[in-house]
Amino acid sequence: MAQICVTNLTFYYEGSFEPVFEKVSFSLDTDWKCGFLGRNGKGKTTFLRLLREQGALSGRCEGSIICPAVPDYFPYPITEEQKKRPAAEFLEELKAGCELWRVLCELEKLGEDAGILYRPFWTLSPGERTKIQLAALFSEENDFFLIDEPTNHLDRETRESVKGYLLRKKGFLLVSHDRDLLDACVDHVLVLNRGTIEVQNGNFSSWWENKRRKDHFAEAENEKHLKEIGKLKQAAARASGWADKNEGMKIGYDPARENDRFIGTRAYIGAKTKKMQSRVKQMEKRIRREVEEKEDLLVDLEKTDDLKMTPLRHHRERLVDIRDYGLAYSGAEKPLFTGLTGTVQRGERVALHGGNGCGKTTLIRMILQKAGYFEQPPGRAEGLFVSGSSRETGISDDFRMLPRESGVCETASGMVISYVNQDTSRLKGGIFEFCRERNLDESIFCALLRKFGLERVQFEKKMEDYSAGQKKKVLLAASLLTPAHLYVWDEPLNDIDVFSRMQVEKLLSEYSPTMLFVEHDVRFRETIATKTIVLSDDVSLLT
């Protein structure tokens, strides 16, 4: 067992005035199964890269990082040239010294057939790609591994496979916002708080319970501090008033009211005033001390503000009607799915569920096309779809290759849809340009992003420089500001931090908008969905 020691780490990116980390110190044992938690944009991926580069990342770095060996990192960068080849041919390019037989052994533990190593990498599903990279990562024993969001875009079955696999491993630092995965796989947590960093024994749920109790205590203590400060301010104001009044009495007097005044009275009044002024200064010092204690107490209190949305009410009860519906691409060996029957009725939150590649996103695109919704506007801020009936807009690239249909899929006329795409890679430009292109109120939009945890400094940056979670928050915020009859969200929580996931859960539970969504986060889906449609070769509807 060795230790990773971080001492007084401060890091700035080139051209940035805000530090990613400032005087951070902690240590980790290399045989821990450690979860890494924190808000989007707090620097989790940056810290993994600093560990990997031993502090040599481009930017200004102070302090020290002592690591016994250079840790391996997931996901591996896969080049376009490598994607055309089978993974068996370039495993050693990903991990030096990687032996094929060891990877085969790890794939067996992941419950995956070895044949995926001999198919072109680009033909593999997201789950198959993840399993190959995890198998390569853990093919060498006694290493310490950095794992960044391994379950993004993975279906439930693959997530369970990855969860079971990581449960049997040790010696890794895992960045994930999947509460179920963190509870199952980690025995320590490293948490980037608002103002500090902490290492704690346990999994996500134990840390969350401790945090909840700590926050409750901090808020109670804060109330006591505020009451004490209020009393001190009142006392200081009274003493200051008395001192000012006495100070005014030193010169001049009313013989009728002060007939006993003599030559020493002025000196007496001056001394009394000085004593009162000294008392006021002592009270002011105590007030400042109380304020400082209060600020220290709340330095890590992570409060999330309630969100709002304005769903519209459609005159029809049934917004989407699907009967014996199927989709298949030309030339494919089998259809994506067949026999789908279900509805999306007003007030329902319907979850589309199924394995990777079963056609969930394709079904969403077909529904959008049938509803007559187009990308608005085309260009740099793609990813969010709203009604295009009143504007001349082009059809998105996402709709160019549509599959063959069977059965019936109908949508209500005049329906306004707000759509969040799972892909955020095309977001470019600044926040204010995004608002102008989407006809969003800039002040309200920025206020909503602030509630999502984005700092004001982010509003001056280009969106291509945002973290993946911050980009997704931009799309979610735009969707929430779009009044709509139907909210269609395709994997909205990928890369979104735990605090924001809970914010969205509370919002949807309170406002009960009509929704059709795809989300692999088990806890979110169980909390939000009122009905689940399972897509497969033999589709069934679960209520």
User: Mean pLDDT score, rounded?
Assistant: 82
Structural class: alpha/beta
Question: Level of helix content?
Answer: 25-40%
Largest sheet: 8 strands, mixed
Cα distance spanning the termini: 50 Å
**CA-based shape:** globular
Task: Provide tags for this entry.
543 residues; alpha/beta; eight-stranded mixed β-sheet; globular
Task: Give the gist of this structure.
The protein is an alpha/beta fold.
What does this structure look like?
Helix 6 (156-167) links the parallel strand 6 (145-148) and strand 7. The protein has helices spanning 44-53, 80-83, 87-94, 100-109, 126-137, 156-167, 179-185, 204-248, 265-297, 360-370, 431-438, 442-451, 468-480, 498-511, 522-528, and strands at 3-12, 21-29, 33-38, 60-66, 72-74, 145-148, 172-175, 188-192, 197-201, 318-328, 337-345, 349-353, 374-375, 384-386, 404-411, 417-420, 486-490, 515-518, 531-534, 540-542. The strands form 4 sheets. Strands 13-14-16-17-18-12-19-20 form an 8-stranded mixed beta sheet, with helices on both faces. It has 543 residues and is an alpha/beta fold.
